[in-house]
Specification:
Elements (H helix, E strand, L loop, with lengths): L9 H5 L9 H10 L1 E5 L4 E3 L7 E7 L2 E5 L2 E6 L4 E2 L1 H4 L8 E4 L3 E7 H10 L1 H17 L13
Antiparallel strand pairs: 1-8, 2-7, 3-6, 3-8, 4-5, 4-7
Helix pairs in contact: 2-5, 4-5
Amino acid sequence: MAGPHRHPSAEDLAGVPLLADLPPEVREVLADRFEVQDFGVGQRLVAAGRRAFSFYVLAAGEASVEQDGSTVRTLGPGEFFGEIAILGSERRTATVSATTAGTAWTLLGTHFHELRAERPDVAQALEHAMRDRLGADEAPMGETPSDHR
């Protein structure tokens, strides 16, 4: 994985299970769209119930996923959250807070929508990978796959 403060490369994104099977050219286009966000211990990255605008991949550090005041999952480098926002939900379904300092790569919803217009093939590949992952996860972020449809 890339070091802190650095935008991801297509090779970095190949280390993210969700993105690993995408063609290298698709990962190259995606890499250019990600922003870099550093975070500190205890920082809330997203809050349940708030409007959702970004998809996140942890490049470094760890975070906890909470629903209804209980931790339902711990995330580490290469893991992601916020895919529900990219797929159309308007509200966050969980709170994600940093348990260590780290770096996240973020794909803003506006960048994803631009990608849909400019490179529908790339947007479709990412969306398909996300939907496959949501369908394969028994309970992503404490939800059932049917909660995402």
